[in-house]
């Protein structure tokens, strides 16, 4: 005949040890418990704050945050609009930029340095 | 039901930002987690670290927690045991494994018969078991889980859980056999 669970426990040579172990669990320090409770309250507050900022969790919100928030986004939008306007307005052709630079360099070399002809200064050593 | 709010309900309130519910749940769960960690580690400081880490993980998990899918208790036992086993492995790797803190310096005879001495003897014997056997025996016989729950917590099949419990019990009996006289049991 199968023994009842209570009967099995009574015959179990380890049961008295287990019973003693169950009745005497190691207890944590009250100060430690208080610290943990405050930590839990802090986590609850974090969850509440996160709920109050719903955009933060979305993909768009995260992109916005990564770019630096609304100020950075408005700068980006202004630059984009300027680019679009330049593309649409199509300013007239400009002179060859290298030629402009070269002419500018020649003029600079021939100009005076602090009112003195630079070429003359070089010749005189 | 004794009218006490369930762990699931308190966890949902914590996720919604209710600090009072968070405190209640922490004060309810922390002693259990600490006791379980101490049974596996035999070290108060390590058990405190594990308790803090296990609960922090639960609080972080709270918004995604689905009531009814898993029991808070089962989840916590699993996380706590995994953290304990990680720590025991690290301590062994560094050769710094702590000697069990056993209040076992009492004189024999009558005083040794008290429950505290038995509990200490059990703790000392548990500390000598392989990690998985210790976990299985502690869950089954000290935390009061049935074999199916032990299997779920340990992520193994019920037969494997039974086998671990049986082997752990045999080892415990062997370790404690020499102490039965000393602890006042004799041949009863």
UniProtKB/TrEMBL annotation, chain A:
Q: Which domain of life is it from?
A: Bacteria
Q: Tell me the segments the record calls region Disordered.
A: 1-28
What is the name attached to this protein's record? Dihydroorotate dehydrogenase
From TrEMBL, chain B:
RNA polymerase sigma factor 70 region 4 type domain: from which residue to which, for each copy? Answer: 121-172
- Cite the GO molecular-function annotations of the record: DNA binding; sigma factor activity
Keywords for this protein: DNA-binding, Sigma factor, Transcription, Transcription regulation
Top-rank taxon of the source lineage equals Bacteria
The RNA polymerase sigma-70 region domain is annotated at: 28-92
State one Pfam family annotation. Sigma70_r4_2
Gene Ontology process terms (BP):
DNA-templated transcription initiation
Keyword DNA-binding in record: yes
Keyword set includes DNA-binding: yes
InterPro entries given in the database record: RNA_pol_sigma-70-like, RNA_pol_sigma-70_dom, RNA_pol_sigma70_r2, RNA_pol_sigma70_r4_t2, RNA_pol_sigma_r2, RNA_pol_sigma_r3/r4-like, WH-like_DNA-bd_sf
Give the family this protein belongs to, as stated in its UniProt record: Belongs to the sigma-70 factor family. ECF subfamily.
User: Which protein, by its recorded name, is this?
Assistant: RNA polymerase, sigma subunit, ECF family
């Amino acid at each position: 005949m199968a023994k009842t669970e209570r009967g099995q426990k009574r015959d179990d040579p380890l049961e008295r040890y287990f019973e003693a172990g169950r009745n005497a669990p190691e207890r944590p320090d009250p100060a430690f418990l208080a610290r943990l409770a405050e930590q839990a309250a802090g986590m609850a507050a974090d969850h509440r704050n996160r709920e109050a900022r719903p955009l933060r969790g979305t993909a768009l919100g995260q992109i916005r945050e990564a770019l630096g928030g609304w100020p950075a986004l408005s700068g980006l939008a202004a630059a984009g609009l300027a680019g679009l306007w330049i593309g649409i307005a199509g300013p007239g052709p400009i002179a060859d930029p290298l030629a402009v630079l070269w002419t500018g360099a020649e003029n600079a070399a021939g100009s005076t340095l602090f009112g003195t002809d630079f070429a003359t200064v070089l010749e005189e050593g | 039901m004794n009218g006490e709010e369930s762990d699931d309900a308190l966890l949902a309130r914590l996720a919604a930002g209710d600090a009072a519910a968070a405190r209640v749940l922490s004060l309810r769960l922390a002693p259990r987690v600490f006791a379980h960690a101490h049974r596996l580690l035999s070290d108060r400081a390590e058990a405190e670290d594990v308790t803090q880490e296990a609960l922090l993980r639960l609080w972080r998990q709270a918004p995604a927690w689905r009531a009814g899918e898993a029991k808070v208790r089962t989840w916590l036992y699993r996380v706590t045991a995994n953290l304990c086993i990680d720590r025991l492995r690290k301590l062994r790797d560094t050769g710094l494994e702590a000697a069990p803190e056993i209040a076992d310096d009492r004189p024999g005879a009558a005083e040794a018969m008290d429950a505290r001495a038995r509990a200490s003897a059990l703790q000392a014997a548990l500390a000598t078991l392989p990690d998985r056997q210790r976990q299985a025996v502690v869950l089954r016989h000290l935390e009061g889980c049935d074999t199916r729950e032990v299997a779920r917590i340990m992520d193994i099949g019920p037969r494997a859980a039974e086998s671990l419990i049986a082997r752990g019990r045999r080892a415990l009996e062997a370790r404690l056999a020499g102490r039965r006289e000393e602890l006042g049991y004799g041949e009863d």
